[in-house]
From TrEMBL:
Gene3D superfamilies, A to Z: EF-hand, Low-density Lipoprotein Receptor, Mannose-6-phosphate receptor binding domain
Entry's Gene Ontology molecular function annotations: calcium ion binding
InterPro entries: EF-hand-dom_pair (IPR011992), EF_Hand_1_Ca_BS (IPR018247), EF_hand_dom (IPR002048), Gtb1-like (IPR039794), LDL_receptor-like_sf (IPR036055), LDrepeatLR_classA_rpt (IPR002172), Man6P_isomerase_rcpt-bd_dom_sf (IPR009011), MRH_dom (IPR044865)
Signal peptide start-end: none
Region listing for Disordered, in residue ranges: 208-378
Coiled coil: 380-414
UniProt key word Chloroplast: no
Pfam families: PRKCSH-like, PRKCSH_1
Protein name as it appears in the record: Glucosidase 2 subunit beta
Record's compositionally biased regions (Basic and acidic residues): 208-228, 236-247, 346-368
Gene Ontology CC: glucosidase II complex
Amino acid sequence: MMFRRVERMAACVSDMKAKKMSVKSLITLVLIGLMSIIDVVVTESVTRPRGVSLTNEPFYRDSQWFTCLDGSRQIFKSQVNDDYCDCMDSSDEPGTSACPQGKFHCNNRGFKPKYIPSSRVNDGICDCCDASDEYKGPGATQCSNNCRELGRADLERRQQEIILMNQGFDVRQEYIKQGIEKKAEREESLKKLREEKEVADQLKDEKERLKQEAESPEKEAKDAHKAVWDAQQAVLREERDKQRANEAFDELDADRNGLITPDELADHKEFDSDGDGEVSEEEAKVTPEEPSPVPSPPEDVNEGDASEEDLDMGDHGDMNDEDEEDFADEDDEDEEFDDDLDEGELMEKYAKHRADYEKKKEVKGKGEDGEEMPEYDEATKKLIEVADAAREEFKEAEKQVNDLKKSIEDIEKLMNVDLGPQQEFEPLQKQCYEYTDREYTYKLCPFDKTSQRPKAGGSETQLGNWGQWEGPDENKYSKMKYTRGRNCWNGPDRSTLVILRCGLENKLVSASEPERCTYEFQFETPSLCTTKTDVETGEIDSHDEL
């Protein structure tokens, strides 16, 4: 009888295929057929004790004896389900609550069979959808068999999941197509950029050569111009030194007799080395360590307009420690002089200190009177103009090389990321997805980083940077690992594990922190929809079309 029903069901299935009926109708028919087969098996076989599964039914077939499933003892068949626990493994009481470790099997025909602890049998709570666990007491009347309704709802849910997975699979095929095309585009762009850089490198080398050629005569002309200027300034400096020496002698030679005596030096406090307010004879025999400089007049004041106060020999002006050390290093023979020194010897020593000081204060590029170095002649200006143009062209060529180099590095960085065996994860690159709970907004930027920020406002905290795929060998692309996030106070660096599953759209669906500084994200994406149920046959197809 059972085989005849199976044959009739198979015939119906074949007939439905021929009529191209829907998968939903086909699955419903198969489910009803399976229920019928189960009913037939139960009806035509030996009746099972309550709470026994089909798998364990053979152990309860003997009509006189029952052996405990652990083999510990043998009891009369009548002792099975007699509400008294005889076996150590509780196997003699599958349908009562007598044994503490017992398990009751819910057949749940039309839905999902399951086991429940035998302590729940006849406790007034409906645990089995077929109500088989409540056969005595209040539950016997309160519980009803609703397995078929649950089975139907579960079937519809599964059908909806299949539809969504099929749609996700189709999106994945588009992702694969996009990924392969994008990879080809990047490879082509990389090839073109490398060729352009090779040409740009050659152009840069040529521009550098031309720059050097233009800078060589420019440097010679500028050096020659400066040499003439320096020579002119040397002559002016020598004349100025003589003038200063004469002025200094005239100031010290109060009686204008052509000689300088200690008495004449006594009026000049710069010779008062011990600071007692008087210049002794011994102090007068020694030249001052810090002679008064004659300051240059301001640029906007003519030389003839300088006041006597500006040129006061007693005003030492500003002098730093380095100047003082340099002046202190003069030879001893330059520090002392006799009463009878003539004009040339005395002024040569006195003016030498002042000239050295003036040299230290000389501004680069300016002459003795502060004037600027004269303009270059037209020929030199032309050379400078040519060199400037060559430098600008080299600068542009160098910039082009650097720009091309950066573009190449950016593409190589993108191509070095594992986007799946068929580039199916490529559409996730350069995208970010957010999920918000009661406190934080979490962000996932695939192949880049993970982060969180408070809903109430505040700075973003980095939870990790892209590390690698972390899934098992058989499902490598099911998990992502992000490491080296912001360091936790007195703890490790933050890290994130992203668990991926099939979904119709790319969506961050949850975020949590199961351990301190370790985060877990759940992410749905069509990229992981790797199987499809065939609409005509109901068979599962896991082969990617591309």
